[in-house]
Amino acid sequence: MYRLLIVDDEYHIREGLKRMVAQSGLSIKVSAMAGDGETALRLYAERRPDMILLDIHLPDASGLEVARAIREKDLHTPLLFLTGYESVPYIRQALSLQATDYLLKPVTREEFEAALRRAGERIAESRRGGEEAIYRQRSSEPWYREHLLLDLLQQRRPAEAVIGEMERLNFFGESGSLPYIVLCCELEEPSQEAAASAGELHGGKNHSGSIFTGLTWSDITAEAGVKTYGAAVSRNRRIVLLSAASSRAVERTAQHIRQAVQQRLSQAVSIGISRPVQRLEQLPEAYEEAVLAAEHRAWVGYNQIIPFASIQTHALDSSGLLEKELLMITELRAGNDAAVHAILQEWSLQLAGLPVKQVKMILTQLMLLVMRVVHSDASVRQEAAQEQDPLLELSRLRHGPEMIDYVFRYFIRMARHIRAAREQGIPRKFQQARQWIREHLQEDGGLNSLAAYMNMSPKYLSVRFKQVTGESFADYQTRARFERARELLLDPKRKVAEVAELVGFADTNYFSIAFKKHTGLTPTEFRKTFL
């Protein structure tokens, strides 16, 4: 099974491509998705996917720049480029980066599956020719066992192949036996002094870039009386695998690790503990559990030992409720407060049936997401600074209904701030024009009707509208139509035909085609995903 990393700044396109992979029947799965270049490079370093699909236009960098950064470290992973523009310079650059394919949006299912097959064939051919040579070279290196362990935990290669290699190397020795338990040790963001100290402890040569490198892990775990196997995942994260350890031994090991990190690195460390598994093939699942438990430190506090079993109930209960959070963030970024309000209304009904502690946890998570959106925009951040600290205000509330009311009113205010920031500097006359468009989506008159309303000639209005707002009349009208359509589709009582008519489409089939082209989903698929 090959692992694919999808990189595209549009949520609906990412989800659509993910579904196409799942429905293709190919031996490929989507292991991760990213919406920007920085996240893509981080996920590449952590997950080491077998193939990567890159949108050329990303919000923080070009997909070609991301590809170059990857090619500096990796000359073999197949790269597939996706773009809405057929550009000869782009194609030339893609070819210079040894791209497997260059796909144009909207990509058809057949084109996409053919590109995935070619990437898979390239991987298979590369592995057949180089596996033995790579094995002979790497297996003698001291860091190779760490890489081998991460290959298994992160599913960077087929589990059967990795386990077979472990057996040839006698990876676990005589002491390795079930059950297996994974610990994820996650440092808080280290200070420069701590990072320098770690480098000095390692002779100033921190090859892995991990702060943890300064620790002598064999001594730490020996004090706990267990045999462990470890690997550095990133600068601040280390994985520890225990075998044949009792629950008391696992807890003792975690306590020794936390104490050593505090004493020797002057750092706080949170440790997530997986449930025990009985087979090596189950270790990737245990790894995911340990990571999830460690990342739960934002709820329970830092410098804690967090068993996965303690957070499992919350994760299961809230998963269905949080399905729409990305849609809500998308509408918030667009300043579409009406759509945000529609999503929040349905959320309030679901939240009302949960325990108060659960409600507070979910609302805090949503609040953090919205605050990140707000603080990423300087003009909106200034408005938000006049608000009381929302997390502090939320922490003071004790009853579910008042929590829901406070948080949702905050979200609506932020959506309106974002819309106001977008319209700042636009003359009032053209703000009224945009409002008129939103209120007359059903009408056929379009530009001529708006020109009559504003007492301008259609030609002059068209030119001035683009100059003042940064969008053509047609582009703005299209965006307004689909924003309104998404909002209306969130009401399960409305039929698709009714929604089409309300946003100015006389033909329901044409509306469905246009909606999919704009959002990546048909109206029916949109409802199944977010209702």
Automatic annotation (TrEMBL):
**Where does the record place the Response regulatory domain?**
3-120
Keywords from UniProt, A to Z, are: Cytoplasm, DNA-binding, Phosphoprotein, Transcription, Transcription regulation, Two-component regulatory system
PROSITE patterns the record matches? HTH_ARAC_FAMILY_2, RESPONSE_REGULATORY
Coiled coil stretches, renumbered: none
- Subcellular location(s) per record: Cytoplasm
Q: What is the name of the protein in this document?
A: Response regulator
Presence of keyword Magnesium = no
Residues bearing PTM 4-aspartylphosphate? D55
The primary site where this protein sits is cytoplasm
